[in-house]
Amino acid sequence: MFLTWVPTTQQKADAASRRRPRETYQFALFKELVAEFRVTPEVDRFATRQDRLTLRYNSEFQELDAEGSAWESHWGQVVNWWNPPFSVIPRVLMKIVAEGAGGILLVPEWKSRTWFSTLEGLPVLRRKRYPKGQSIYRNAAGERMPGPKWGTIALLISPRCVQ
Questions:
Q1: 25-27 and 137-139 as β-strands: parallel, antiparallel, unpaired?
Q2: From CA 67, how far away is CA 49, in angstroms rounded?
Q3: The model's pTM
């Protein structure tokens, strides 16, 4: 038997303990967007208890009220709200297509990203563009945050469940 020291950064079991929750923020124009699109999302797929915009939500971290991880949940047959971390947008798009999910997707308008062409292939019922610099988020204290340095688009996607 040999004992070998393995740095904690190389141990899968420790990976979750090193992750930090993202900054808490909300899309400040949610009610207006939902009214304009005439659809009410049922599940906020990338939220925390503090920033969820629907009663039902998925969280990246274990939370008492969360319905588990967005990746483990089935996205079909409900109207979804997606405001995902930018790093997982390609994976979100693959899951939307694979599961025939519908709902409102909020993403940066980064036309040069490889995932952007996937967006253009989705069945979009409505689209709304927020120009760069427009204040569209609020922080945990409810204060409006400075607008992002890029445009943002909201898409009402209807593969199978949003009419």
A1: antiparallel
A2: 11
A3: 0.83
Share the mean pLDDT of the chain. Answer: 87
Residue type, 160: R
Count CB-CB contacts under 10 A for residue 62: 9
- With vertex at residue 111, the alpha carbon angle to CA 107 and CA 116, rounded to the nearest 5 degrees, is 60
Poorest-pLDDT segment among 54-68, 86-100, 119-133: 54-68
> What does the alpha-carbon distance between residue 35 and residue 32 come to, in Å, rounded to a whole number?
5
Strand-strand pairing, 102-108 and 79-82: parallel
CA–CA gap between residue 153 and residue 105 (Å, rounded): 8
Single-letter amino acid, residue 88: V
CA dihedral 7, 8, 9, 13 (to 10 degrees): 130
Dihedral, CA of residue 80, residue 28, residue 142 and residue 132, to nearest 10? 130
pLDDT digits (tens, 9 = 90+) for 35-49: 999 999 999 999 998
